[in-house]
Amino acid sequence: MESSILSWLIFLPVIGIVFVLAAPGRYARSITWLFTFAVFLLSCTLFDPFLRSWAFDGPYGTNMHFEQIVEWINVGGFHINWHVGIDGISFPLIILTTLITWLSAWASWGFDKWKINRSPKGYFALFLLLETGVLGTFAALDFFLFYIFWEVMLLPMYFLIGVWGGPRKEYAAIKFFLYTLAGSVLMLIALLAMYFASADVTGTGTFSLIEYATHPEIAKEFNNPARLFLGWPFAKVMFVMLFIGFMIKVPIFPFHTWLPDAHVEAPTPISMILAGILLKLGAYGFLRVCYPIFPSAAVWAAYFLAVLGLVNIIYGALCCLAQSDFKRLVAYSSISHMGYVLLGIAVMTTVGFQGAMFQILAHGISSPMCFFLVGVIYDRAHHRDINRFGGLWLSMPRYGSLATLGFFASLGLPGLCGFIGEIWVLLGTFSAPWPWAKPVAVIAAFGVVLTAGYILWMIQRVYLGKLRKEYASYPDATARETAILIPMAALAIFMGILPSYTFDLMNGTLADVLDVLQPAITAAQDVVIAMGG
Amino acid sequence: MWMPTGDELSMLGPHWALVGTIVAILIGAIIAGRNWRVAGTIAMVGGLLTAGLCALGWKGLGTNWAGMAGGAGGVPMLVADQFSYFFIFLISIFLVLIAGMWFLGQDARLPEKLARKRDATEFYVLLVGSAFGMALMVSTTNLLMIIIAVEMTSLPSYALAGFRKKHRLATEASLKYILFGAVTSAIMIYGASLLYGQYHSLDIVVIGRAIVEQLTIGTTEAGGAILNAPTVLMSVSIVAFMIGAMFKVSAVPFHFWCPDVFEGASIEITTWLSVASKAAGLGLLLRVVAVLAAQLGDGAEQTLNWVRLAVAVMAALTCTLGNFSAYRQTNMKRLFAFSSIAHAGYMLMAVAIILPTGGAASGAAHPAFSAIVLYITVYLLMNLGVFGCIAMVYWATGREDIGAFNGLIRRSPVIAVMMVAFLFSLVGMPPLGGFIAKFWLLAALFDSGPIGILLVIVAVANTLFSLYYYARVAFAMCFSDDGQPAIRVPFLGQAAATVCALAILLIGTLWAGNIKTFSDERSSNLYAVTKQAEQPVEEAVKTAELDFRE
Hints:
The structure holds 2 protein chains of 2 kinds.
Chain A: H1 5-22, H2 28-44, H3 47-50, E1 65-75, E2 78-86, H4 90-107, H5 111-114, H6 120-139, H7 143-152, H8 154-164, H9 169-202, H10 209-214, H11 216-222, E3 228-229, E4 232-233, H12 234-249, H13 258-265, H14 268-293, H15 295-321, H16 326-347, H17 350-381, H18 392-395, H19 397-411, H20 417-430, H21 437-462, H22 479-497, H23 499-530
Antiparallel strand pairs in A: 1-2, 3-4
Helix pairs in contact in A: 1-2, 1-6, 2-4, 2-6, 4-6, 4-14, 4-17, 6-7, 6-8, 6-14, 7-9, 8-9, 9-11, 9-12, 9-13, 12-14, 12-15, 13-16, 14-16, 14-17, 15-16, 15-21, 15-23, 16-17, 16-20, 16-21, 17-19, 17-20, 17-22, 17-23, 19-21, 19-22, 20-21, 20-22, 22-23
Chain B: H1 6-11, H2 13-32, H3 36-61, E1 66-68, E2 78-80, H4 82-105, H5 113-118, H6 120-137, H7 143-161, H8 168-199, H9 204-215, E3 216-219, E4 225-227, H10 232-249, H11 257-264, H12 267-296, H13 300-303, H14 305-326, H15 332-352, H16 354-358, H17 367-397, H18 408-411, H19 413-427, H20 433-446, H21 450-478, H22 491-508, H23 512-522, H24 537-549
Antiparallel strand pairs in B: 1-2, 3-4
Helix pairs in contact in B: 2-3, 2-6, 3-4, 3-6, 4-6, 4-12, 4-17, 6-7, 6-12, 7-8, 7-12, 8-10, 8-11, 9-12, 10-12, 11-12, 11-15, 12-15, 12-17, 14-15, 14-21, 15-17, 15-20, 15-21, 17-19, 17-20, 17-22, 17-23, 19-21, 19-22, 20-21, 20-22
């Protein structure tokens, strides 16, 4: 089914940029609000096929919806297409993107308060460009296109942090840029290598991410241990390069250090986008690029990746315990939570995959909420030192209740979204057929305790206790702030109580990806069994 | 006595147009006196005419090449093919733009303003003169002609570099340029004479064939020649000869003139040298290596492997050193001098991959040539944009250091935004043209075997290194505002920068395929690469000798 709706979705924000630039600066925020809301509404029209039983019929790659293929570059044997389409992996992320972007556009509403002499036009134009980049990356099925959109995101983010950020914004912005570009150049090498490898097989090469995974000969050749790249096995080298490219974005230890800096310096709405959406791109990259295309390498690296995920969980949580900066704490909690995503993907079980994907969405709801909650209090207090707060719930009851809900969702309290993701990942890991899976699951479970530790301790210091008098006069959350928090809070509860609705959107495609991986997993387990494991 | 036919003469239309422009400027000075407007207008019209002739020529040439015969043994002295026409087109368009830049700068309140007005005639004659030299450089395979072309390019450039007569740095730059140029020219001529001494021909096509004869020790079953290892003398002479082109390209270790000249020369000249000199040098280098490779055929891989390795190492060093040296620069012209060295390094990589495909290509587009054509086109736009923005800030503030750019986003938003686009295009970020240029170059490299893949790795690592100093400029413009007053920039300058940036954006998105098609067409069916097997070597050499004695 050919459809141009995704193209409209991707380029609607660009049309918004034109309006933002043409209109006087004081209208920029309203225009952006309208356009991001329009994009959100438009993305909601994509729900239809995913609610039907036939949505996920057929193997991986055959059940793309709203697919559009237009030839873009066809010269010198190169075929590069404008190829977009969505399935159960990308669709929930697109909805998440449009929702969170809309909410953070709303959160930027108080722009004149936090940056008086900086151009709102520039801010909102870059903001919309960022949305285009993210939506394009999620929708792209052509690797070249994917790469272009991946890079398109970098520049707006660099300027959004660098121009409108906090005191150490320059450092944070260039650090973010350098880290991410390092990942992208690795991806660029892989892009070329995979293209020419596919050309070796089929004569005319392809950039299609779907064909890489499903074309029988290409998939066979990619995972052929005899195929070498500069003397090393092709699949492993490609997997590692792509994985590093994506893990920087997630971010996975040891490439995580840009994240706390970027978050602390970025303005609140940008932090919301960064945590809620941009981190998910890395995890999406694992699911779309690394795993289905290089199953053999995925199995080979499984243990190592699971340990990396484990390190993220534990190390991120321990770092949280040591923070006194409110925003830095939430940033490190993102690192810890994204560790569950990697762990769930690495074990390659149905439950693990589902848990990882659910955790992606749950974190996509809870972390922007947490960052916004921090932003609300920062707007009033102009500092973020946890130890200087106290008893805020008393002066700001509505804010305090929503804050507790948001942080509990992040904590993983049963009944809220965070719980489902974490428990599914832990179950998936525990039931995984790898010999190392059970110890890893046991250690990862301790992460939950640590998470509860730092969140409860933080809530105690900030919201509970005696109300300090300098905070007594603070107004409660305004109508706008409440309106931004309510959708996220509602989703956190909805996803926590009725997770099956969310699972239904993605399970079919996740099963398809696992089907692609299954032969490699089986082969690896045969080896384990043969070794008496 | 050989006489060119009418057809052959018309093939050289662009060359004639450039020579005519020089004459016209001089005559114009006799009639209108020292009038900078007249001289500049004639130069611009001449440049446009040349470019127009080239663009018409593309159609006329079709898939053929044509040469001015009568050189050595029927081997043409000058060549007119898609590739040479493209480079002349590029250079003459660039000439027009540089003349336009000089026009815009005329209104600026500069200390050297009067001198600029008075000496405009000389300026344009020298400028067009060096353009003519470059036009010769990209359209010949004859040793003598190459040397003449290199000198024809260099001598006006030396004078242009020191054109700000009362400026201490300009004088120093000019002197440094002359010294370096003289030494490299001497080495080049030495190499040429060694080649002539060994192979008794001035034409690289014939020399290539003679090398095959000299080295052949048997034939393969398929009929190809098995070649002996290259002799030391041959290696030395080829390397020495290529140094002249390396100097023009500013490849490491022949790059030392570049930053000083760029800093000392007036900004129009800096811009001119940053693109045109490199373009011509690359055109020459590509052609020389490709011609040799084509004549050597199957044996090229083995015989010229060391050339490839040497060029590859040089290219890798050039871009790495260029990028790292740019880190500490605070003068914008110097900074972008190193940036241009780095980009020369990327382009030089394409020269290193000619060999594996050189023997085979006959009618099809040559990937290395095509990559260079595309890269240099985009590079022209990016560099023109960057230097144009630097020039406009210089004209308004009289400063060239990076501090003059602080807070530019407030002081002149249009210039700052366009500058950001140029900077990140130079980094190679999609969706800007710089990425497309880099992508096709990397794709060509990647497809050429292990050395190419290693070069790809070097190139992408350098992309990462280069980000920091380009971002530093963006950073000064957007993040660090120290309250300098807003600047006034000419409207036409803003418009030109906007057009450049838009073109780069379009090349990166909608035209990404078209520009590749364009560069494929410009680099297909090259005279240089087709093997000339009609005439036996002895005969060619004999006629060549006779010809030369006459």
